[in-house]
Design a protein that fits this description.
- It is built from ten helices and nine strands.
- The termini are far apart.
- With about 325 residues, it is α/β, with parallel strands linked by helices.
- The strands form two sheets. Strands 3-4-5-6-7-8-9 form a seven-stranded mixed sheet, sandwiched between helices.
- It folds into two domains: about 30 residues, no CATH class; about 220 residues, 2-enoyl-CoA Hydratase, Chain A, domain 1.
- About 35% of the residues lie in helices and about 15% in strands.
C-alpha cells in the first residue's frame, strides 16, 4: 500500500480544495444587479438594500409579516373542476399545474388566511406570482369568494394583495367569468359595510386590474409596481408613440388619482393597521404589548429622573 498516494495526497487535497457554495445563498437584484445575501434579503422583506427595489414575495412570507407573531389560520377554498377544457399547448394543463405546485409548494395561485393584525381581526388573501404568473383561474375566483364569505361570517375586513399577469388562458372563458364573480363578492362586502382594502404589487395586470384589484375602498400600492390592463409595450405598438417615463407605475397612478397611497413594504403593516382601524371606527392601535402603567411609579425606575429627596410626611 502506497500511504503517500492513499492517505497524504487526499488529505492535502481536502485541505486546499475549494468548497462549493450552495447556489441559493445569493440573489441578484434585477434592478441594480447587486448580489444580496439571502438572510439579509429575507430580513429586509425581499427589498433590495442597495436600490430599494421591491422583489416578489410569496403569500406565506407576506402573511408572516402581516399577522401578529406570524400566526394565521388558512381558510379552506373549494376545489374547482380540474382541466375543464382539456387544454393543451406545449404541455397538458394538469402537467403545468403539477410543475407549478412542485416549484412553489402551494396548491394554487392564491392563499386565504385569517388572524389578527395589530390586535385587529382580519381576513386576508394574497396572490402568488411565481405560480403560473399569478394568473386568475377558477381557483382564484373561488378563493376570493371564500375570503369574502369568511369575512362576512366573522364580520371582519378583507385585505387582498394582488399580483397577477391576468386571466389564465388554459381555462378560457371560464377564467374570464371570474371577473363578474369576484365583483359580486366585493359587492357583498360593501353591502355589509365591511372594509375591503387592496394592496397592488408588481405586477398587477389584465383582468385582475379590470375586476377585484380596483374595487377596493382603499387602494395602496408598493413602490414602482406595474399596474395596468394592457402593458406599456402593447400600448406603444398600438399608438406608435413613446410613453412617458414611469407610465403605469405606482407613482404615476398616484399622481393621476387612481391610487390612495404608495407605501414602502416595510411600512405596509403599520399603514394597514391604521387604515383598517380607522374604517372600523376603532381607536389607534397601541404599539407593542407593554403592561398598563401603575398608579405609583418609583423614580429610580425612570431613566434620568431625580431621586425623591423629600422627607416623608409626619405621622398624624
Amino acid at each position: 500500500m502506497n500511504w503517500i498516494s492513499n492517505y497524504v495526497r487526499p488529505k492535502i487535497n481536502s485541505l486546499f480544495s475549494r468548497r462549493e457554495m450552495p447556489e441559493n445563498l445569493w440573489t441578484k437584484c434585477p434592478e441594480c444587479g447587486t448580489m444580496l445575501f439571502h438572510r439579509e434579503l429575507k430580513d429586509n422583506l425581499n427589498v433590495c438594500t442597495s436600490c430599494d427595489h421591491h422583489m416578489a414575495l410569496t403569500p406565506r412570507e407576506r402573511f408572516e409579516d402581516l399577522f401578529d407573531g406570524g400566526i394565521f389560520t388558512e381558510v379552506t377554498v373549494p376545489e374547482p373542476v380540474a382541466d375543464p377544457l382539456h387544454f393543451r399547448d406545449q404541455k397538458k394543463y394538469p402537467d403545468r399545474l403539477k410543475a407549478a405546485q412542485k416549484a412553489t409548494g402551494e396548491v394554487e395561485a392564491m392563499l386565504v388566511a385569517e388572524g389578527e393584525m395589530g390586535r385587529t381581526p382580519i381576513v386576508a388573501a394574497a396572490q402568488d406570482f411565481t405560480f403560473m404568473g399569478g394568473s386568475m383561474g377558477m381557483y382564484v375566483g373561488n378563493a376570493i369568494i371564500a375570503a369574502a364569505e369568511r369575512a362576512l361570517e366573522l364580520k371582519r375586513p378583507l385585505i387582498l394583495f394582488s399580483a397577477a399577469g391576468g386571466a389564465r388562458m388554459q381555462e378560457g372563458i371560464l377564467s374570464l367569468m371570474q371577473m363578474p364573480r369576484t365583483t359580486v363578492a366585493v359587492e357583498m362586502l360593501r353591502e355589509a359595510g365591511l372594509p375591503y382594502i387592496v394592496v397592488l404589487t408588481d405586477p398587477t395586470t389584465g383582468g385582475v386590474t379590470a375586476s377585484y384589484a380596483m374595487l377596493g375602498d382603499v387602494h395602496i400600492a408598493e413602490p414602482n409596481a406595474l399596474i395596468c390592463f394592457a402593458g406599456p409595450r402593447v400600448i406603444e405598438q398600438t399608438i406608435r408613440e413613446k410613453l412617458p417615463d414611469g407610465f403605469q407605475r405606482s407613482e404615476y397612478l398616484l399622481d393621476h388619482g387612481m391610487l390612495d397611497r404608495v407605501t414602502h413594504r416595510k411600512a405596509m403593516r403599520d399603514e394597514l393597521v391604521s387604515i383598517t382601524r380607522m374604517l372600523l371606527g376603532l381607536p389607534p392601535a397601541v404599539r407593542g404589548d407593554l403592561p398598563a402603567p401603575t398608579d405609583t411609579v418609583d423614580a429610580a425606575d425612570v431613566p434620568g429622573a431625580l431621586p425623591n429627596t423629600a422627607e416623608p410626611d409626619a405621622p398624624a
